[in-house]
């Protein structure tokens, strides 16, 4: 039965039953009204006729013709069937023509009183009004007024007809209104349920509430709050009760994601194959926070990592599909390498990404450079990667983890080709305020590209808020800061804070010697005497890291506290980075020059205050340096998170060593027990260095223990796990929603 008839048929039946019951009632009522009406008319006529009749009857010889003429006069204009007069003996003495014989006079013994009677004859009903007539107070007879009531029957038939028509009309109107409301309410319910289940609208956005029918809104609001609370509570409980490690990630993949396909896209690949001068191919792990964080995640998840093949021997080590299995010691996932021409790399990577977006997002006082040809390359390379994602996808709805500022356009491009994909974009660098971002000539395109994501992650809430402000300023989008979501072009993006971290325990720690041995080895290798305390800095050689400010702080310390001259050396390990960019070449030169100047000023035979190691260090070597240090100084002028700070903490299982941390890093919001400093303030940083070098072991232990606890608990598995759980929640909602929508469609079609 069609959906609408389900309402109409029962309604019509109910109304027919009511009409069936109501019509005789209406019939009876109208009959009674007419009887009462005729009673009143009879009484009125009798009252009018009282006097003339009494007079006529009081004459000694009443002339019959006069009485009948008088009766005829009364009948004129009134619809009276007949009139009669009965004497006190109960005899009909005067009657008009056609006075019905069936009508009887009141009996001689009956008390004179007015009354009415309805006589049912074969020709139809008659109404008889009997009214006593008195002369000088004495009853002299009764006037009988007869009305034909057959018209009542005719009218009653009409009334029945009209009542039935009325009910049919009501039935039709009510049915139409019911169908209309049912349709609207059904859509409202479906929209409400959709929104409720998706959580992106009803639960998260006022859009959803508007889409919900008005009668559902209060319930929807309560449900929103309830579901949000329950979800938050469940997540918080699940999250805090989980022991975050590779197994937890595998469990999420198995249970929550049902083994769904996972892909990572980043510019930097986790393993490069490099041909050495002696023609031997060696494998390098790049100095990259992104790789440090994601590699252990990928080991746990398997899947495909799509990245630029930048190693000199990369092409020699892939199969015919440009795949290579890694990690080399125990292959568990594959890299799909994407080849870029020198020109493409120059425009997309060095140009737009690193001379444009990098300085734009880092407030480190280096001006961004935007060139139209770089932008063209950036767009084309993003498109190339989108094509590879589509090419690699085995399903229509993979989970794609897009990494960083190299791929701002990629989420939208993937969304266009794989609309059902869950795209999680993580922005590893800071997001500036709208004014700073506003100088980018292609700002709308970049924002549009990013909003192709299902989930967009930043390290801190501050960066999320900057992003909300930026979108609010430059796009026609709905920004919902309560539910942390942005609705743009029919797509909903959740914007969340996911502070990145490192694996725990770090793999590089497994191969370390005890701290004392690490110290000895580092001292021997770098020529540092046993009684010299060691400070370390480990970075890519990048102007955002504040390396010049760091070295200047060491110089200031030696000026302010000369007792450290000869007793304190600062080891700066710096991996060369983006070396073909002029700004980086300048920095390299400046760092070397400053170190040389300080060393000339305070150095002595066998002692250098600054020990520069500008070269690539593998993870084991970096951890050895951390473990040799009395203090580690992270002096970034602006940094999304900075994983060096977390690595240093993780490396110190002896619970010794002091972390000095720039207040302009994301890490400073988590590692509160570090000595938090402003790297631009040399007096303050020099004083902090002195404090660190003189900090009692007990205080070092207390601070380090607390920070280690935090890094252990909020490790990279938790970072990735939270994103994957959010992705699973989103995918689950979408699936349920699709089922509900399918059900609704089927119901409507029935
Ligand atoms: O900090 C942003 C970032 O992309 C990191 O994720 C990574 O550590 C670094 O830059 C790598 O830079 P590059 O790939 O240019 O060497």
Model description:
The protein is α/β, with parallel strands linked by helices. 50% of the residues lie in helices and 17% in strands. The chain is rod-shaped and about 170 Å long. The termini are close together. The chain binds 6-O-phosphono-beta-D-fructofuranose. Residues 267-268, 288-290, 404, 428-429, 577-578 line the site of 6-O-phosphono-beta-D-fructofuranose.
Search tags:
750 residues, alpha/beta, six-stranded parallel β-sheet, 22 helices, rod-shaped, binds 6-O-phosphono-beta-D-fructofuranose
Fold topology:
Blueprint: H1 5-58, H2 64-75, E1 82-87, E2 92-95, E3 115-121, E4 124-135, E5 138-148, H3 150-198, H4 206-211, H5 217-241, H6 246-256, E6 262-266, E7 272-275, E8 281-284, H7 289-301, E9 304-308, E10 323-326, E11 333-338, H8 342-361, H9 372-392, E12 399-403, H10 410-417, E13 422-426, H11 434-437, H12 443-450, E14 455-458, H13 461-474, E15 478-480, E16 485-488, E17 491-497, H14 507-510, H15 515-526, E18 533-540, H16 547-560, E19 568-575, H17 582-602, E20 610-614, H18 619-628, E21 631-634, H19 643-651, E22 658-662, E23 675-677, H20 682-693, H21 697-713, H22 716-749
Parallel strand pairs: 6-9, 6-12, 9-11, 12-13, 13-14, 14-17, 18-19, 18-21, 19-20, 21-22, 22-23
Antiparallel strand pairs: 1-2, 1-5, 3-4, 4-5, 7-8, 10-11, 15-16, 16-17
Helix pairs in contact: 1-3, 3-22, 6-7, 6-22, 8-9, 9-10, 15-18, 16-17, 16-20
The structure holds 6-O-phosphono-beta-D-fructofuranose.
């Amino acid at each position: 039965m069609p959906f609408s008839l389900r309402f109409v048929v029962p309604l019509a039946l109910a109304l027919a039953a009511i009409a069936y019951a109501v019509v005789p009632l209406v019939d009876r009522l109208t009959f009674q009204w007419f009887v009462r009406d005729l009673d009143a008319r009879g009484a009125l006529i009798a009252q009018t006729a009282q006097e003339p009749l009494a007079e006529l009857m009081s004459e000694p010889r009443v002339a019959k013709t006069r009485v009948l003429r008088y009766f005829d006069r009364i009948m004129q204009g009134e619809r009276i069937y007949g009139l009669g007069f009965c004497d006190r003996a109960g005899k009909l003495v005067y009657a008009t023509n056609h006075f019905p014989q069936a009508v009887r006079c009141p009996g001689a013994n009956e008390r004179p009183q007015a009354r009415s009677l309805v006589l049912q004859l074969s020709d139809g009903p008659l109404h008889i009004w009997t009214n006593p007539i008195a002369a000088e107070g004495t009853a002299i007879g009764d006037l009988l007024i007869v009305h034909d009531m057959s018209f009542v029957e005719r009218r009653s038939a009409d009334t029945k007809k009209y009542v039935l028509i009325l009910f049919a009309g009501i039935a039709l109107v009510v049915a139409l209104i019911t169908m209309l409301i049912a349709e609207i309410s059904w859509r409202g319910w479906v929209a409400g349920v959709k929104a409720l289940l998706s959580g992106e609208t009803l639960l998260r956005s006022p859009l959803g509430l508007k889409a919900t029918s008005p009668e559902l809104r209060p319930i929807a609001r309560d449900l929103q709050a309830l579901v949000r609370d329950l979800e938050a509570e469940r997540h918080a409980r699940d999250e805090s009760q989980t022991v975050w490690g590779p197994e937890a990630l595998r469990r999420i993949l198995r249970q929550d994601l049902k083994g769904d396909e996972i892909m990572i896209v980043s510019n930097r690949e986790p393993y490069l194959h490099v041909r050495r001068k002696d023609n031997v191919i060696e494998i390098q792990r790049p100095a990259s926070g992104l790789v440090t964080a994601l590699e252990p995640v990928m080991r746990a998840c398997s899947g495909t990592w799509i990245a630029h093949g930048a190693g000199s021997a990369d092409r020699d080590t892939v199969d015919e599909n440009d795949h290579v299995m890694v990690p080399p010691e125990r292959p568990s996932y594959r890299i799909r390498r994407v080849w870029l021409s020198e020109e493409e790399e120059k425009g997309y990577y060095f140009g737009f990404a690193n001379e444009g977006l990098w300085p734009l997002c880092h407030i480190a006082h280096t001006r961004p450079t935007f060139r139209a040809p770089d932008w063209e390359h950036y767009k084309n390379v993003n498109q190339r990667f989108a094509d590879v994602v589509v090419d690699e996808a085995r399903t229509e709805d993979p989970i794609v983890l897009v990494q960083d500022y190299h791929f701002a356009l990629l989420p939208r491009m993937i969304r266009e080709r794989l609309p059902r994909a869950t795209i999680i974009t993580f922005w590893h660098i800071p997001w500036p305020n709208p004014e700073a971002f506003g100088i980018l000539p292609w700002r709308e395109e970049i924002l549009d590209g990013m909003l192709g994501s299902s989930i967009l992650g930043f390290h801190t809430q501050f960066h999320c808020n900057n992003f909300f402000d930026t979108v609010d300023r430059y796009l026609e989008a709905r920004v919902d800061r309560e539910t942390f979501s942005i609705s743009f072009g029919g797509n909903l993006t959740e914007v969340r804070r996911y502070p990145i971290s490192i694996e725990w325990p770090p793999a590089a720690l497994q191969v370390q010697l005890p701290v004392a041995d690490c110290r000895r080895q580092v001292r021997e290798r770098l020529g540092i005497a046993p009684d010299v305390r060691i400070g370390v800095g480990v970075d890519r050689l990048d102007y955002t890291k504040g390396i010049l400010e760091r070295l200047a702080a060491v110089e200031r310390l030696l000026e302010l506290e000369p007792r450290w001259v000869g007793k304190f050396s600062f080891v700066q390990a710096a991996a060369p980075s983006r070396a073909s960019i002029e700004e980086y070449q300048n920095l390299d030169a400046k760092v070397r020059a400053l170190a040389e100047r300080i060393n000339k000023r305070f150095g002595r035979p066998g002692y250098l205050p600054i020990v520069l190691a500008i070269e690539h260090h593998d993870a084991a070597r970096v951890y050895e340096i951390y473990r040799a240090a009395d203090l580690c100084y992270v002096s970034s002028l602006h940094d999304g998170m900075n994983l060096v700070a977390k690595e240093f903490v993780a490396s110190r299982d002896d619970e010794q060593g002091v972390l000095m941390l720039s207040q302009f890093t994301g890490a400073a919001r988590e590692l509160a027990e570090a000595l938090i400093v402003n790297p631009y303030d040399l007096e303050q940083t020099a004083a902090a260095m002195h404090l660190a070098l003189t900090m009692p072991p007990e205080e070092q232990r207390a601070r380090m223990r607390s920070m280690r606890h935090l890094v252990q608990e909020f490790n990279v598995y938790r970072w990735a796990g939270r994103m994957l759980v959010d992705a699973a929640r989103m995918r689950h909602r979408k699936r349920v929603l699709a089922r509900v929508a399918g059900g609704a469609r089927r119901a409507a079609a029935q």
